[in-house]
């Protein structure tokens, strides 16, 4: 994996919110899932949530997505979050990784909604992209500036002028 990509991931893992190409992504809300289609040890329909960060997949208990099937290697693959989506990389696993039946090349494969990921010889997962929250456009932002600001409880927020006036009275 390229060093600059690892550096970007470390920075993204520490941030609370990541903004990429007009998409604002919270690191605390799942943005995609991997659903089990076929597995020796896992039940079909079982799902794993994916967040805006790198994720390891493999047979080792320390892998973030633990797949206990024998043909799956320890540290089998990595999912890297970049440019608002995920790219999968095979970690030179013994039986390989395929996306929609095609072996994953060294540069990885950008995942799309409903892609089928085969790990080893018997494990198949389906990638599902969840709805992304988009940032307001400049036009929407301008419209919001003219509206009255409120707090979550519905209380009116004092303007800076009102705050100064109150301080002068005290």
From TrEMBL:
PROSITE patterns (alphabetical): FHA_DOMAIN
Annotated ranges, domain FHA: 55-104
Chain spans, region Disordered: 130-170
Biased composition (Acidic residues): 145-170
UniProt-listed Gene3D superfamilies: 2.60.200.20
Family annotation (SMART domains): FHA (SM00240)
Compositionally biased spans, kind Basic and acidic residues: 132-144
Protein name: FHA domain-containing protein
Organism: marine sediment metagenome
């Amino acid at each position: 994996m390229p060093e600059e990509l690892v550096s970007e991931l470390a920075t993204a893992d520490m941030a609370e919110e990541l903004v990429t190409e007009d998409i604002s992504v919270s690191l605390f809300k799942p943005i995609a899932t991997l659903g089990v289609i076929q597995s020796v040890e896992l039940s079909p329909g079982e799902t794993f949530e994916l967040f805006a960060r790198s994720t390891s997949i493999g047979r080792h208990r320390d892998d973030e997505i633990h797949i206990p099937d024998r043909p799956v290697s320890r540290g089998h693959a990595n999912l890297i979050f970049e440019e608002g989506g995920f790219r999968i990389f095979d970690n030179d696993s013994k039986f390989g990784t395929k996306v929609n039946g095609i072996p994953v090349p060294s540069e990885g494969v950008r995942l799309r909604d409903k892609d089928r990921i085969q790990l080893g010889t018997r494990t198949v997962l389906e990638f599902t992209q969840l709805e992304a929250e988009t940032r307001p456009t400049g036009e929407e932002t301008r419209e919001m500036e003219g509206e009255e600001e409120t707090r979550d409880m519905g209380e009116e927020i004092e303007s800076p002028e009102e705050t100064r006036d109150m301080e002068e009275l005290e």
